[in-house]
Amino acid sequence: VSGKQWYQRRVRGKKWAKFGDCATDGPGINPANSMVGDDVFLTLATKKEQQEKKDDDVAEKMAKMKASGQGMVACRICKGPHWTKECPYKDTLGVALDVQQEEANAVKPPPRTPGAYVPPSIRKGEPQDSQTRQRDENPTIRVSNLAEETSEKDLQDLFKPFGPVSRIYLAKDKNTGISKGFAYITYNRRESAESALSTLHRYKYGHLILQVEWAKPSGS
Predict the structure, then answer these.
(1) Distances from the Cα of 210 to the Cα of 167, 179, 201, angstroms
(2) Alpha-carbon distance 189 to 199, whole Å?
């Protein structure tokens, strides 16, 4: 919009009739019901100017520290006289430094004494909960779309005909004790779990259709 067009629009705007709380006001602005904002001046700076200003600020901070006797700053990555976040090698040396830090902070198992007892849960490497490992190794299926009134006894009667069941876990609400609609069934043999899965998947149980699938391993 050119300056002339903008000026013409401004002149026409001044001729508009006032309305609302200002309907009876005379020409000009009534401070009782109008407010004029402060002037805002926009100053655009290029990326080069911003970087130069940033470098000047850093240099000024370093000069003040040196003059006050506090000493120079030292980069944590390259040990140079600059801030770590301003290091030009942070994308290369910084990655190696982070890796070294992670290796130093890594929790290592205590050294084993010859002849000492070693728990089965850590005999093959990293410590692992024995119950979690056993649950992952045993054939477990997940059944969902259960009714709220479903109980462990109902699941026992439903899944036991396919083979010996070692564990039944029915998810319940902590406050109400009502079923959340899914459960985990663990069999002693994989053949029993496969038979239950193929037979009861999409099986009509009460007024709902069951969904049966293999349970995913812990942590997946």
Answers:
(1) 19, 14, 6
(2) 16
In contact, 196 and 159? CB cutoff 8 Å: yes
pLDDT in tens, 46-75: 777 777 777 777 777 767 766 665 555 677
User: Could you tell me which residues come within 8 angstroms of residue 185 by beta carbon, excluding any fewer than 6 positions away?
Assistant: 140, 141, 142, 143, 155, 159, 165, 167, 168, 193, 196
With tokens 């190794």, the residue in question is 137
Rounded to 5 degrees, φ, ψ at 170 are: -105, 120
Tokens representing 80? 């140079």
Q: What percent of the chain has pLDDT over 70?
A: 67
* Residue in this structure with the two tokens 């006289």, named with its chain if needed: 81
Tokens of residue 157, six digits: 């009667």
- pTM, whole model, 2 decimals? 0.40
The H or E element containing residue 212 is strand 211-214
| Eight-state DSSP code of residue 209 | E
Query: What pLDDT digit, counting tens, does each position of 15-27 carry?
Result: 788 888 788 888 7
Query: 3-class DSSP state for residue 41?
Result: coil
